Amino acid sequence: MIRGGKYALYHGKEYRFVGPKGNYIELVSHNKEDINDGFSYYAEGVFIKNVSLEEAENLFKISSKARYKGELFPVSEEGKTGKVLLDTTNTELAKKMGFERTDKYMYSKYVNWDEVEIIEQRKPYLLE
Rounded distance, CA 64 to CA 36, Å? Predict the structure, then answer.
């Protein structure tokens, strides 16, 4: 699984979050069992809970990269094929790695999961 976005640690579990909204954040879960921890039904397969910033144990951002043949690339998951989509704007690197031009300055390549190492980069989420 490739993750990215804002996350909070709450009761020892990681949740995506929306916000902050004042002194609160909105946690998002896809686990129905979280209803037992005060989450409410939002939509099919989505449950939410507003918590104060003090209740969140840690706020951080995750961005994922893929290591492919020794190089790091921005990465996303392609739902239809189940493959990993790599992108670069580096023309020389794209040619060397067999990427196809997909936009004026963008090159992309679909690869199998076993050809890449997914690296999650975590940084503290700072409230401004």
Answer: 31
